[in-house]
Amino acid sequence: MAGLDNNMLVLIRALAENKIQDAKKAAVVCCVKDNTKKNEGKVQYYKKLLENGCTTMFELPTNLKGLLNMQDVSDFNEARYFLGEQQRKLFSNIKTGVMTTTKLLEYGIPYMNSTLVYGEPGTGKTEFAKYVAFKLGLPYAYVNFSYLIESYMGKTSQNLQRIFDYCKGQKCVLMLDEVDCIGIARGNDSGVDGELGRTVIALMQALDNLVDGQIIIAATNRQDRLDKALLRRFQRHDEFKRYEKEEEIGMIKTYIKSVDENFLTEEMITYANDSHTQSETVSYLIGKIAEKVV
């Protein structure tokens, strides 16, 4: 085994002396010099993370555990992920939004890089958010509102504030899943409806305060249920649909090629003749691959 090179020694010394910024710079150099194929995805992800200065987000404080879920997406398998034309355009717009946020802040103008994706279950909304975080080298923070509502009714607004306060000043992709559980149109002010109404207001206020480079992606199966004022908080509204035949074939080929291109059969291609969600297609392919490997 080869010994430590100079950059590794600089990194160790900086950590020993608690010089975190120097340690980050040395770590970036180590990432640049690592050209091993097996580490390529993780090295690129961590390099971006170090350059963005967001590594501390993975260390959740005690009062947020169970509310906010930090996921390491450095091992996201890009070679296996098929990006449809709609998703490709949306990613480009989100990436442009990162630069827009920075430019407008120079003029003192707040801009929230926010997207609402909606559509039936299984059309890849959550997976797309992970892809965005991976490609931009940002931490991926996940909130499932159905869990938040069911487990913390009565304290939801307070917990929302904790989550968003923690994300202030941190560049990250904040995924708000099943946002319709909390963002439904406001009705009367009594009982459960009144609590949800107050929670919707708390969510909108929290979103308005996120102007420091966060990327907000909210997902719902029921866009029609969302409060109109909440809808206005999102710069983009994109419906995720089942892929048409040609894109589904592209997805099948991409997935199989990432495993073993010799596994591809005409039966798999024919599968795309019928309509399926992306999740259904992945489940089908996993079953076929399992038959090949035993």
Concise synopsis of the structure shown:
With 294 residues, the chain is an alpha/beta fold. The protein has helices spanning 6-16, 20-33, 40-52, 85-106, 125-136, 145-152, 156-167, 191-208, 228-231, 245-259, 266-270, 278-293; strands at 69-71, 113-118, 140-144, 173-177, 215-220, 236-239. The protein starts with 5 loop residues before the first helix and ends with a helix.
Q: What proportion strand? A: 5-15%
What order do the SSEs take from the amino end to the carboxyl end, as H and E?
A: HHHEHEHEHHEHEHEHHH
Q: Uncertain spans, ≥5 residues at pLDDT below 50?
A: 188-192
Helix fraction? 40-55%
Q: Averaged pLDDT, please?
A: 84
Question: Which features does this protein show?
Answer:
12 helices, 294 residues, Rossmann fold, globular, six-stranded mixed sheet, alpha/beta, 3 domains, 51% helix
Plain-language structure description:
With 294 residues, this protein is α/β, with parallel strands linked by helices. It folds into three domains: 6-56, no CATH class; 58-239, P-loop containing nucleotide triphosphate hydrolases (Rossmann fold, 3-Layer(aba) Sandwich); 245-293. It is built from twelve helices and six strands. α8 links the parallel β4 (173-177) and β5 (215-220). α7 (156-167) runs parallel beside α8 (191-208) and α10 runs parallel beside α12. The two termini are 36 Å apart. Residues 188-192 have low confidence and may be disordered.
